[in-house]
Every structure is written in structure tokens, then in C-alpha cells.
Amino acid sequence: xxxxxxxxxxxxxxxxxxxxxxxxxxxxxxxxxxxxxxxxxxxxxxxxxxxxxxxxxxxxxxxxxxxxxxxxxxxxxxxxxxxxxxxxxxxxxxxxxxxxxxxxxxxxxxxxxxxxxxxxxxxxxxxxxxxxxxxxxxxxxxxxxxxxxxxxxxxxxxxxxxxxxxxxxxxxxxxxxxxxxxxxxxxxxxxxxxxxxxxxxxxxxxxxxxxxxxxxxxxxxxxxxxxxxxxxxxxxxxxxxxxxxxxxxxxxxxxxxxxxxxxxxxxxxxxxxxxxxxxxxxxxxxxxxxxxxxxxxxxxxxxxxxxxxxxxxxxxxxxxxxxxxxxxxxxxxxxxxxxxxxxxxxxxxxxxxxxxxxxxxxxxxxxxxxxxxxxxxxxxxxxxxxxxxxxxxxxxxxxxxxxxxxxxxxxxxxxxxxxxxxxxxxxxxxxxxxxxxxxxxxxxxxxxxxxxxxxxxxxxxxxxxxxxxxxxxxxxxxxxxxxxxxxxxxxxxxxxxxxxxxxxxxxxxxxxxxxxxxxxxxxxxxxxxxxxxxxxxxxxxxxxxxxxxxxxxxxxxxxxxxxxxxxxxxxxxxxxxxxxxxxxxxxxxxxxxxxxxxxxxxxxxxxxxxxxxxxxxxxxxxxxxxxxxxxxxxxxxxxxxxxxxxxxxxxxxxxxxxxxxxxxxxxxxxxxxxxxxxxxxxxxxxxxxxxxxxxxxxxxxxxxxxxxxxxxxxxxxxxxxxxxxxx
Length: 727
Fold this sequence. Notes:
Blueprint: E1 6-7, E2 10-11, H1 39-45, H2 49-73, H3 79-90, H4 101-111, H5 139-162, H6 169-177, H7 180-189, H8 193-208, H9 212-225, H10 233-238, H11 242-263, H12 265-279, H13 295-303, H14 318-339, H15 346-363, H16 375-388, H17 392-406, H18 411-414, H19 419-436, H20 440-466, E3 484-491, E4 494-501, E5 504-511, E6 514-517, E7 523-528, E8 536-541, E9 546-550, E10 557-561, E11 563-567, E12 573-580, E13 583-590, E14 598-601, E15 607-612, E16 618-622, E17 629-633, E18 640-642, E19 650-655, E20 661-668, E21 671-678, E22 684-686, E23 694-701, E24 704-709, E25 719-724
Antiparallel strand pairs: 1-2, 3-4, 4-5, 5-6, 7-8, 8-9, 9-10, 11-12, 12-13, 13-14, 15-16, 16-17, 17-18, 19-20, 20-21, 21-22, 23-24, 24-25
């Protein structure tokens, strides 16, 4: 029996291409008579090969000229993110801080992987695995090797589809290259979506051969690269395909075990405790940008206000956002579950697989253009199955919607109209209707209670996530186009912080309502200052990180090797961190003394963040990145004491000018919240409550704190806020 036929060997549909038209009068595998082809459709199916070859040639030339050639010549994100993480592993540097933006950028500047920004979140640690063999090459050579690998994977994907459909090679390639923008971006940035497409096609081929456990393993490998393919378990459970579910679990456990053995438990704990919980918030990169083409960004744009990024939504209502998201998610999932027919015919099975991929994209919290590479599978398999059923109108509608979803649209249009989201939603609806044959209405009557309960639960969850306006009134008005403002400190009569803009980090001084760039030649990843001094200390990252002293007037001066500086309130003491091969130590320097800095906390304590008192005592967050605690180092005696009364996990300590309070961030339910504690009484006050991150506090005076908050802006894309504490 051939690969394209349905029967005991597999579940692959027959296409209605010219080679199979003579079999239309025969009965299909489920015993139903197939309809005759309308004359107009027959003419379309018999397009001139010359026309098809002409279109194909144009698409090939465009793909080579607009995707392969530019990709081959230069490094572009996001490939350096994976390469850098893999290179750090090969150098023996622990990956426990790989999800921290400035730490990861510091490693990039040290190794010189690329000139520009890098960020690893929210990728799972297992996504590093494919690039481990390529770190023997230089970054650009490694990217070229990955491009070649992707080309091979794309060909293998089409080979799997050729053997599971009745479409010829010319039309397979033609449909594939109609995915113009996603393929272009994926190859230019050397991302993972062609790899995921290959794994999905491999899973479908295995399923067609009744190797369901192998199919499940392939799906788990795709989920190890990006999280959204894990949604495939919905199909396995709904169809009671326990071998596929078993394969998925076996593959997932195996890949996690490999990742744990290679990269250690610590980075996985950070991923599970922080990244996964934060990713569920939905406000990832560009939470209000319709260019992201996700329902979360659409409903956020319409119903959630943010002072800088979305000051004028259509209606500012967290309730409407919560309801819209709940109804959307429930509608998408229940629509998929209820549209499935009980039959196991080849065409129905193909449509189930074809509709699963747009469901994944529509449920994703973040959907860039190249995510749509996986729609190549949907277009080919869905088109083939609909033609085989004689549903010619829907087959060509599917192709039109696929082309629209994949087409390059001017950014001006995509900034106000999410065309890709609308096209994928329509494509998904078309596939569901074709799969259900009008049976949904009857089943909805039986499931409406379950659906209503799901909507209510999701609405409550979404409302809790949307309730993040607590610190909006505390925000400093900075202006400018910076993506991220972090590490705020007082300096003289102003406030200094770091700004991420145009591919670099730079120090900014905000005084009298005017922001002034105090540019350095490299990345300024952290700053330190005091209300009692006009001097700003900044970390300048490069092959080695150095601390630079920046006066209000005059020339900057490099003073010492180090990073993450902290200045005492009186300006006398500067504490900072030094890192060698991932091992960190804390050093202390008297700013008014010619003496060299001296070691106060060895690398065996694994320090993360530091603060220093007016007397030179150092408080440091130390230990495992997933569960840090506080240590106190006395300047006079060098005695190290654990502050056991402080409940971990805690980071970012800051001592008040009078030494009576300490501010810090504590992780609760996956988010970092701001606290202040009185040393004398032990009284703790929780200053932030929303499900987002408030970190890096510093004291303007004994009652006022500056801090960085990403509430409503996207995880890590923080703004600067100020809060006044009661006596």
C-alpha cells in the first residue's frame, strides 16, 4: 500500500491532483461516493505547468535574494542568543543567570559574540541543545552552518509531506515558498521554526504509519525548542491516542533529563519558578503591539492602559480584558474539541492535524511573523485533505488565507491592523467547519456548562493578571524612546539609571525633568550613586568589565575592574562584584583613599547583589540563584553573618541612609515584589502586590525608594518608579 493511501498502514489522505482524478468515481475509504469535480475547479487544477514554474522561479529568486543572501552575510538576532548560551556551557560557566538581561549581555560583550543586544528568556534550557555542536565555529560560521541545516530540514519536511499527501513536488515547493515573510525572517535570524516544522512533519509521517509513540516523541522535541507545541497533547487526549501521549511524556522526560545532566538543576529551577510563571502573564515583548498578532496583544491594546506604551486604549477596563481573553481561549479550545468527528478516516485525521497548528499560534502569548512557518504544514495537509474530499472551495480559500497570513505587509498597516491574526483565525475557523460538518451545534448544547465554567475560571485568572496598575501613579516621567529603564539610583539633585536603546545600554541622568545621556563607548549595564555626591559610577562592559567614575562636569575616569557597583549614602564606600569563569566575589573600595579595593566576600558564597552602609558594612544576596539569601559582612572584623530572620528567596538589598531600614525584593508566586524592613523591630512592609516584577530598589532619602518595575510593560521591560514609605 502506498504512503498516500488510507488503510490499516496509515491515515494519510488522497489528494485531488490530476494524477488521481481518474479515481474519483471509486468509493473513498469510508464508503462515501466522492463528488465530481466542477469544470471551473478542474481548470484550476490543470494550471499550465509553465505558469506554475514561472511563479516558483520568482519565489525562489526572492527567497534567495531577500532571505538567504542577507542571512549568510551578517549576524542577526536571535541566533546569537542560543549560540552564546551554548558557548557559555562549553566554557564551563554556570547558566543559572542566563535569564537575567544584564548578566547575559555582559557575557556577550565579554565573548564578542555580536554587536548588539542579546536576551535568552523565555526559551527553555533545552533549546540550547541543537547548537552545542556548532560552538566550535565562530558565530557567523555557526550561523551559516545552521542556515544550511535549516535548508536540509526544510527539504526533509517536504519529503515527509510528499509521502503523506498526493501533491507533487512542484506544488509542494510552491505552497512552501508562498510562506514568504515567515521563511524570510526565520532564515535571516536563524531561528528554530523550520526545525519545529520538520519535527511536526516527522510526527505526522510517523502517525500515518501508525507509529504514534514516535509521533509523540517528535512533538515533545518540538516543545523542547519552544513551549507552544506542547498544546498537541490536547489532540492526543481528545482522541484517546494514549500511545502518542505516552511517547510525548517519554520524550519530554528524556529531554529534560538530558538538559538537567548537561546544564544543571539551577537554571531549570529558575526557568520553572520565574520564567514559566511570567510567560503566562502574556505581557511579553511588545504587549500592546498589534504587530505581534496575538489575542493577548489585541485585547491589551483595546482594554488595558499603560502610561507610556498604551495611554489611550479603546476602553480602560481590566474586566473587559479578562472576559475577552477568557471567551477567546475557551472558544478556540472548545471549538477544536467539539469539531472532531468520531470517525477515523484519513481526511478527518489530516484536518485535525492541520487545524492543530493555527490553534497553537492563536493561543500563544507571543507570536512573531516567523511563528507562521509551521503553517506550511497546515496549508499543504489541509489543502490536500479538502481537495480529496471534493471540498474545492474551502481548499482554495485555505490557500488564500495562508498567503495573506504569510504576506509581507507594510509596517504602518500592521501597527494598527493585525492582519496575520485575522487571517489565521479565519483559516482556523474554516478548518474547524470543514472538520465538523455541522455537528458542533448539537455538541455545544451538551458542553455549554463546561464551557461556562472554563470561561469563569479563566476570567478570574486573567483579571488577577491584568490588575497591575498599582505603581502607574508612581512612575517617573522620562520621555524618550527607550525600551527598558533599570537600576535607578540618586545622584546629587537628580536620578540616574540605565536605558536600553538602539542596540546598547547607556547611563542616563534625569535632573529638573530633563534626561541627559552620559554615553560611554560600550554597554553601561549598571550604575551607582548617592544623593550626597554628584559623582556617578557606571559599569562599562567589554572583554572585561570596568567601573567608570563620571563627574557632573569633566572627563570620565576608569578606576577599577568590576561590575554591579553600589555606593554608600555618604559616598565614601563603593562595593562591587568581580566575576571570573562564572564565579563571583565582592570587593570594597574607599573612594577617598588611594588604597586598592580589598576582598570582603569570597566566591564560595556565590554573591549576586550588594549594598554598603556608611560604615563600610556590606549586605549581599548570595547562594543559589533560584533561592538566594542575605549575608552581612562587618567592615571592622570581616565577620560574615547570615541574616536568618530574612525569609528567602531575596535579592537586590539596599540600606537606607540612616541605616535603620533595608529594602529588597522577594519572589512570591513567580514575581519579584518590593519590601522594606526595619532592623530594630523586624517589621516588614510589602510595597508592591501586582503579578509583575519590582526590583533594584535604592534610597533617595530615609523615606523614599526608587525601583524598577515591569508592570504592564512586558517582562523585563521596566520603567522607573518612586514610592514614599510612612514613618
